[in-house]
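pinned: reference chain
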Amino acid sequence: MPYTDFSAEEAVRRGEQIYERDLRERLEPANVGKFLVIDIETGEYEVDDDRAKARRRMVGKHPDHARYTKPIGYDAIVAIGTALRPAGP
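pinned: its C-alpha cells
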C-alpha cells in the first residue's frame, strides 16, 4: 500500500515533532553532524554518517512510507552553497 500523500510542509512538521518529542534528547550531542531519517508514519529512525545509507536502511524497512531526513543538531535540512551551522541562538 503506498504511503499517505503528505505535503512537504506536513512531512517536515511531523518529522520535527517526532524529533523534538522523542529523539533530540536521546541523539544529541553524541550524533551531531550525522544524518537522521525518520519514518513519519511509525516514528522509527536510522542514524548514519552517510545520509544515503541511513535512507536505504529505512526504505528497506518500510519502502512505501513517508520519511523525513535531517542532519542532527542543525536547523537546515539541506544547505546549498553554504556551510551548515549548529542549531541554537
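why pinned: The chain is about 35% helix and 15% strand. The chain has one domain: 8-71.
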